[in-house]
Amino acid sequence: MQNNLFRTLVSVEKAAELIPLGSPLLFIGSCFADNIGQRMVDARFPTLVNPFGVLYNPVSVADALDSIMDLNYISEEDLVERDGLWHSFMHHGRFSSHDASSTVRSINDAIIEAHDFLQDAEFLFITFGSAFVYEHKLLQKVVANCHKFPGGDFERYMLEPDELVEIWKDLIVRLRVFNPGLKIIFTVSPVRHLKDGAHGNQLSKAVLLLGIDKLLALFEKLDYFPAYEIVVDELRDYRFYDKGMTHPDSVAVDYIMSRFCESRLSREAQNYYKEVSKIIRAREHRASGHNTPAYRQFVSRTLADIHDLSIRYPAALLEQDRQWFQSILEHLDDDENAG
Fold first, then answer.
1. Tens digits of residue pLDDT in 7-34
2. SS3 179
3. What interhelical angle do 267-275 and 250-264 show, nearest 10?
4. pTM recorded for the entire structure
5. Region of 271 on the Ramachandran plot (φ > 0 left; ψ -120 to 50 alpha; else beta)
6. Contact, 59 vs 128, CB < 8 A?
7. Cα 177–chain centre separation
8. Rounded to whole angstroms, how far apart are CA atoms 82 and 87?
9. CA nearest to 124, candidates 171, 166, 163
10. Strands 183-188 and 222-224, how do they pair?
11. CA-CA distances (angstroms) from residue 57 to 188, 193, 210, 273, 283?
12. Who contacts 211 (Cβ-Cβ below 8 Å, separation ≥6)?
């Protein structure tokens, strides 16, 4: 029996420009960008994921990219304080701290890192999560994160597709001037924003899809990866969601990742992605703490695997893994000599 007999298989065309091993990749947008981007980080691709933290709406993603290109540093005057923590409305809560200068420093460091990375990036993956935005009434600016400030401080509304297009058509031109070789791939997050209501969530996703489709019609060499359609139309079952019934679970992300790899990675990069998984698993292995012959053999075998991969895939970023296992082996040798 065919595996797709009782489902609609979403067609994912192979990209015109495939990702070779060693290409710098920048992922920005919703938490789904975190999921897919982290898989590429784990596979030791040169990857930067959400330098401003998770961003859900198209306005905030655009603002982040503008800030990155222009090196728009922030100062303590740009921060707001609540419950003893200093926040930036334009950044995720991971930057918030009890010390305003520390918050400013960590945000500006992230801006510098992202600016340098974007200059050399070959692929930019943009994931929109929701078309609903929160505009701060006093600042008259859409925020990336409300940081639990009172709801009355904000006006909430849904973007229109043409508003999305108006913002992004200028930004795409700027990105191509900033980095002429940059390839841009859009996705829509399959994460369900049920706080907008089931109907509101569908309307929001429709705005994002329509806006992206219009951008694809305006520009050449833009791409779209159908992560949303794969989850909604192909998997379409709650068993592929986590306990909260809003986020795709690890099985769904694994499946989306497999479709991504076969349609977006070069043949060499696909082969490497499969082979490096054993290094990832070895790094995650929790040893018993005993200096046994079996564990020494495991570490030595992993070092040999890393060496083999490094020879066959010179662009792979495996040096930290080699140092990690080499230090373990040296520690085991020291213990044995001490005994």
1. 778 999 999 999 999 999 999 999 888 9
2. coil
3. 150
4. 0.93
5. alpha
6. no
7. 23
8. 8
9. 171
10. parallel
11. 11, 12, 14, 31, 35
12. 58, 131, 159, 161, 162, 164, 165, 168
